[in-house]
Amino acid sequence: MSLELQSVGKHFGALTALEEVSFHCTEGEFITVVGPSGCGKSTLLRLIAGLDMPTTGLVRFHQAPVRQPGSERALVLQDRVLYPWLNLEANVAMGLELARKPRSQARQEARDWLARLGLAGFEEYYPHQVSGGMAQRASLAQVLAVQPRLLLLDEPFGSLDALTRLGLQQVLHGLWQELGFGVVMVTHDVDEALYLADRVIVLTPRPGRIVADLPIYLSRPRNRDETPFITLRREVLAWLGIQPREGEHRR
Amino acid sequence: MQSASSAHQRNNPAKKRIWSYVLAIGTLVMLWQVAAWSLPSFLLPDPARVLRQVPEVISTGAFWNTLLTSLGRLFTALATAAALGIGMLFLGAAIPALRSYFRALMALLQSVPPIAWFPLLLLWFGFGALPIVIVVTLAALFPLAIAGLNALEQVEPRWLDLARVLGAGRWQVVQRVYLPAALPALLSGLEIGFGNAWRSLIAVEMLAGAARGLGGNIQLAGQLGDMITVLIGICVIGLLTIALDWLLLEPLKRRLLAWRYR
Predict the structure, then answer these.
(1) How far is CA B78 from CA B64, B72, B144, B179, B186, in A?
(2) Is the peptide bond before A207 cis (omega within 30 degrees of 0)?
(3) Does the CB of B158 have a partner CB in chain A at under 8 Å?
(4) DSSP A202
(5) Which residues of chain A lie closer than 8 angstroms to B163, CB-CB?
(6) Quick check: helix, strand or coil at residue B115?
(7) Which of A6, B152, B207, B251 is the most core-located residue (most Cβ within 10 A)?
(8) Do B165 and A69 touch (CB under 8 A)?
(9) 8 Å CB contact of B177 and A83
(10) Which of A24, A21, A31 is nearest to A193 (CA)?
(11) Which residue of A has its CA nearest to B170?
(12) Do A74 and B166 touch (CB under 8 A)?
């Protein structure tokens, strides 16, 4: 058992963001969490990352209770979080330099990660000089460089255009297959969830509670217009309380 | 590359600024000339007469001594203020409670013009460079520290979260997130602090009768009725401020905030 949540709840004053959330995942498993906005999805990731502490219940990672953030559970946020005063290379090298790797080695590894994410030649660029998709690739490189065992993604492609998003889903899929880290990814895009996940967890809004935990047994790489995919999409949308009309495609 | 075009765009505003300065200096000299026509020359010598005296004045060792004395005090004070300000920022970033304490302290002290401390300092330390440097340090410190401390409050929480996720400890967060994030504000504070320091320096030098330096020179010349030296002193102060801004502060900003100019 790699990650384990036991009856996790989180209150902010009178507001209950999450209630009785329990699930576990195995090493290298790809989990997506879908739910309407305000269902505490981001809160869930912050608890797993160790940035916030649950009000009730317990988060365990490889048996040990999570008490603080650490690079083995790395979080990527939706918005541009690269440091604006560092160029892409320095941004990616940040985690390595924090771990006191020699500077030249950190920089070399950073360049390798950037190249791996298709950003060779952009090392000297500052975040504000590159597109949203490129910035998000660099964010992935920055976090992958510290070699997390679990990658936490908070709507990582939510603010990108549709084509860029599809491209980055493929990039992420490839890296996940190759490197074997686990993923907990929060998204409001049902197709994205089904394209990537071993399991889709559906949350209700306010308070966030798990209503469905669906294993996805489709072979990879997946095809978004095959019948089983469409059937699963209907099922997830039904769990979300949305009735898709015949022939209507979400996004 | 896009750097060529952006370099070009950068040059244009700079050129515009030079012309604005030329125009402003021209206007002031004209006003001076008009005033000189209506006043007797022992009260206000005209620009041409002052200009003729310039070569003679700046060829003396005393002039350069005076200038270097003042600049020495200015930079000692600025360096001290910067060190104190950065130290405060470092502690304030690591310990949030200290941050608001420092802010309260600075806000309280800022309400007193630094020169008001001078009589006290004069009694403690006597006529020397020390009381002058302390006053000038205070003048530079307040805007610097307040700008920096305010900037700490503006640091985006996600930058802090990201650093912690990447494995940063408390001091690493201070060094790698708080300080670079506060740097632009700190440099603006330094600019204001520089202006304050320079003005306080001249004022306190005029106050400390026996002290040398530009302010002391102007004060002495005024008492002797030597308006030419007074006016040369005023011009030197004005031109020096602009020169220091262009030769020191601007390049420093461009170097430290290189990412903003790309």
Answers:
(1) 21, 10, 10, 19, 13
(2) yes
(3) yes
(4) E
(5) 94, 98
(6) helix
(7) B152
(8) yes
(9) yes
(10) A31
(11) A98
(12) yes
Assign A160 to helix, strand or coil.
coil
pLDDT of residue B218 exceeding 70: yes
Residue appearing with tokens 């090493």: A27
Q: CA dihedral defined by B239, B240, B242, B246, rounded to 10 degrees?
A: 130
Rounded (10°) CA dihedral B110, B115, B119, B124:
70
Distances, alpha carbon A207 to alpha carbons A36, A37, A168, A190, A204, in Å: 11, 11, 31, 20, 7
Q: How confident is the model at residue A48, as a pLDDT?
A: 93
Say if B113 is an interface residue toward chain A (CB within 8 Å): no
The Cα of B8 is separated from the nearest Cα of chain A by a number of Å equal to 17
For the segment B88-110, the average pLDDT, to the nearest whole number, is 90
ipTM confidence: 0.86
| pTM for the full predicted model | 0.81
Asked if omega into B131 is within 30° of 0 (cis), the reply is: no
- Cα B183 to Cα B86, B156, B168, B186, B248: the distances in Å are 10, 14, 20, 5, 16
A40-51 average pLDDT score: 89
The set of residues, in sequence order, having a beta carbon less than 8 Å from that of A114 and lying 6+ positions away, is: A88, A89, A92, A120, A122, A123, A138, A141
Backbone angles phi, psi at A65, to 5 degrees: -60, 140
Burial class (CB in 10 A: 0-12, 13-18, 19+), B54: middle
Residue A28 three-state SS: coil
**Do you know the residue count of chain B?**
262
Run of H or E including A19: strand A15-25
Distance CA A39, CA A111 (A): 38
pLDDT digits (tens, 9 = 90+) for B5-61: 444 445 566 777 788 888 998 999 999 999 999 988 888 998 998 999 888 888 888
pLDDT band per the 50, 70, 90 thresholds, residue B210: low
Does the distance separating the beta carbons of A77 and B166 come in below 8 Å? no
Is the Cβ of B159 closer than 8 Å to some Cβ of chain A? Answer: yes
Report the SS3 class of residue A94.
helix
Calpha distance A113→A111 (Å, rounded): 5
Rg (C-alpha) for chain B, rounded Å, is 22
In contact, A108 and A84? CB cutoff 8 Å: no
Confidence label for A82 from pLDDT (cuts 50, 70 and 90):
very high
